[in-house]
Design brief:
heterodimer, A: mainly beta, five-stranded antiparallel beta sheet, B: mainly beta, four-stranded antiparallel beta sheet, 50% strand, globular
């Protein structure tokens, strides 16, 4: 059974703060690591798909790094804004077609 | 391009009934995956269909089944509903050019309540 863990479970920051979360996954049988943002009452939105050890991806103020040898990925948000409030999910793919194993997410709340 | 659509959005059923949920993928996408989310649980993979064939299956009982049509639209069926089947059911579509690394696009989900 694959175990994907995310920490912290929730986070409350002020506008302008920078923050980061962790996703831990099995270091064996790694194929890809996906990050999603899920806002309340909306569909999960894909942020990044990461495949190579040492990968770094960036989208605006959000970036992610990947370490497949030790089995973790970090998601960073620089200068958090209220619109960044959402649950951030990571999902591991072990090469089994399109099957994703999700973590339970980090819920981020950004206040003014 | 229209996104992934799911119908119905909300559904209330009673124990023992069966239910069918529908998912229309993004035009051109051939893979459809289904996920279940219950309170306190992450998204749990149910199954994936590609070109009308089930390509992968999660650890769910046989009461959960699905199919895919030639236009890539997919349905999932849950028979003999139990209270624990109350959940948000999401479907996701992808091309896929490279299964596993293709971005999966999610629909808004169907909220099923079993009374």
């Amino acid at each position: 059974i694959l175990n994907v863990e995310q920490s912290p479970q929730s986070l409350h920051v002020q506008e302008g703060d920078s923050t980061n979360f962790t996703c831990s996954f099995p270091s064996s049988n790694f194929y890809a690591l996906h990050w999603y943002r899920w806002e309340t009452a909306k569909s999960p939105e894909a942020l990044f798909v990461m495949t190579l050890n040492g990968d770094e991806k960036k989208k605006g103020r959000i970036s992610a790094t990947l370490n497949t040898k030790e089995g973790y990925s970090y998601l960073y948000i620089k200068g958090s804004q209220p619109e960044d409030s959402a649950t951030y999910l990571c999902a591991f793919n072990a090469g089994t077609a399109s099957k994703l194993t999700f973590g339970t997410g980090t819920r981020l709340q950004v206040t003014l | 391009k229209a996104g992934v659509t799911q119908t119905p959005r909300y559904l209330i059923k009673t124990r023992g009934q069966q239910v069918t949920l529908s998912c229309s993928p993004i035009s051109g996408h051939r893979s459809v995956s289904w996920y279940q989310q219950t309170p306190g649980q992450g998204l749990q993979f149910l199954f994936e269909y590609f070109s009308e064939t089930q390509r992968n299956k999660g650890n769910f009982p046989g009461r959960f089944s699905g199919r895919q049509f030639s236009n890539s639209r997919s349905e999932m069926n849950v028979s003999t509903l139990e209270l624990g089947d109350s959940a948000l059911y999401l479907c996701a579509s992808s091309l896929p050019e490279l299964p596993g690394t293709d971005t999966q696009y999610f629909g808004p989900g169907t909220r099923l309540t079993v009374l």
